[in-house]
Write a structure and sequence with these properties.
Shape: globular
Distance between the termini: 100 Å
CATH architecture of the largest domain: 3-Layer(aba) Sandwich
Largest sheet: 8 strands, mixed
Number of strands: 11
Length: 472
């Protein structure tokens, strides 16, 4: 052995540590990572086999397709390529830059559904959150019509948007029927929330984007998912109600789903109206600020401080034993609307109409769907009692007078066909429950056994009354 081969070679400590880390990583990637992947893949298949035996709507293969495959499908979709070519010609953009934009848009939109996460962690967490905050109830469901939907149909739940709790509540309520794919706004694109929402199968939407290339990529993803039978959940209002009333519908996502729909195709497209209401909306005061022109929007630190303050106050009340759940959260499922049947009855097809005529027809359809949603919106105790105080804000009510007025309202709502949720089937208890919740929140004040709207709280009372105002 030559002296050169036995001469020590000095190595910096940082380089030695780096070499050790690389060696450990190589060992892990060669020996452990394949085993972990195999273990997780086996767990995923077990979950799929289990849930597909109990779900009314099986998980579609499209949802289980690898995310990169879906991104590549969008990248080389003929209609997306056509839009990219238009951008290249109009702006003189290099092809590589245009295609990089397409890839970034596709990566932004496409979800990464994980059934293990959805049916194990997400469902358990959602159930715990929903039931710890609210008394969760099913209000009304047209079970006969829902069961009659052909199993190979594409089902789209169309819901009013009251709170960000809607996502948690609906996923929990339909967990025994299907795995939902949500259209989620840009608010959720923050770490680590973005990754969690993707794992639940949601896709992200820039609701205010006018970029034609982005909109074409989004359109093609929605059309692919719809054609593949993916069960989707869409808020046609396009955002949260700021004043408690139903908002006019946005037509974009509906247009994407309908513009290529073939009524003679293998799948029907069925819209199911869903009505959601709460005795308390977590964001009520924040939403009302958006209706005040002089109020500066709370963003960044101010929004975080408001949220922290809300949780801090409720935690302190819980530690003192003074905390109560936020009343009832109720969901109703209305009569489905089959597009195959609808187009047959009206004797036209969306795919054969020019853009202006198509949007006119979609606007009419959206109006009908919003009416269906509004008609099944659950009537809950707090909105009922709030309505009385909004009608006569200066009046002081005795409890018996309040009971009598609410009973009159209930009778009128029942006669109009509204969906009432009466806790314990006891109308007097419903009034007492609603009144107690308003007093606890200091929205109503009590003096010598008489109740009146608290000064300055009329906007919040009106917010809750507005949720059922259209039913009268």
């Amino acid at each position: 052995m030559t002296p050169l081969m036995t001469t020590p070679v000095p190595v910096p400590l940082w380089l030695l540590l780096l070499l050790c880390l690389v060696a450990v990583w190589a060992l892990v990637s060669r020996l452990l990572v394949p085993s972990v992947r195999w273990f997780l893949r086996r767990r995923v298949h077990r979950v799929l086999d289990e849930v597909n035996t109990r779900l009314q709507i099986r998980i579609q293969p499209f949802k289980m397709t690898k995310r990169q495959v879906l991104i590549d499908r969008l990248l080389y979709d003929p209609k997306v390529l056509e839009a990219a070519e238009g951008l290249i010609e109009a702006e003189g953009m290099p092809r590589a830059v245009a295609m990089d934009r397409v890839r970034r848009y596709a990566q932004e939109i496409v979800p990464a559904f994980n059934p293990l996460f959805y049916f194990r962690l997400s469902y358990s967490l959602g159930r715990a959150i929903a039931r710890s905050l609210y008394r969760v109830r099913l209000g009304y469901a047209d079970e006969a019509s829902l069961r009659a939907i052909p199993p190979d149909s594409t089902i789209v739940l169309l819901m009013n948007h009251r709170s960000n709790m809607d996502y948690v509540l609906i996923s929990y309520m339909v967990a025994d029927r299907s795995a939902l794919s949500y259209a989620v706004g840009e608010w959720a694109r923050i770490w680590p929330l973005e990754s969690l929402i993707r794992a639940m199968g949601a896709y992200f939407v820039r609701r205010r984007s006018r970029n034609p290339l982005y909109r074409r990529v989004l359109q093609r993803y929605v059309q692919m998912a719809t054609a593949a039978g993916v069960t989707q959940a869409v808020y046609p209002e396009g955002g949260l109600s700021r004043d408690g009333r139903l908002r006019p519908p946005k037509l974009g996502l509906l247009d994407y789903m309908l513009r290529d729909f073939d009524p003679q195709g293998e799948r029907d497209l069925v819209f199911v109206p869903v009505g959601i209401n709460y005795d308390r909306t977590l964001e009520d005061r924040t939403l009302l600020r958006d209706t005040e022109p002089s109020a500066a929007p709370r963003r960044g630190f101010a929004a975080a401080a408001t949220t922290a303050g809300f949780f801090g106050r409720n935690l302190w009340m819980w530690l003192q034993g003074k905390w109560f759940r936020f009343g009832y959260a109720c969901v109703s499922f209305g009569r489905p609307l089959s597009m195959r049947q609808y187009l047959q009855e009206h004797n036209f097809e969306f795919r054969k109409l020019e853009r202006e005529a198509r949007f006119g027809r979609i606007e009419t359809l959206a109006g009908e769907l919003m009416e269906r949603i509004g008609s099944i919106l659950p009537v809950l105790p707090v909105p009922l009692v709030a309505t009385v105080f909004v009608e006569e804000p200066e009046r002081r009510w005795g409890e018996l007078e309040l009971q009598a007025r609410v009973q009159e309202l209930l009778a009128a709502l029942e006669a109009s066909g509204a969906q009432l949720y009466i806790p314990r089937q006891d109308r007097a208890y419903a009034v007492a429950f609603g009144l107690r919740n308003l007093v606890l929140r200091h929205l109503v004040e009590e003096t010598d056994g008489l109740y009146r709207a608290a000064p300055g709280e009329l906007p919040v009372l009106r917010y809750y009354a507005n949720s059922i105002a259209h039913l009268g």
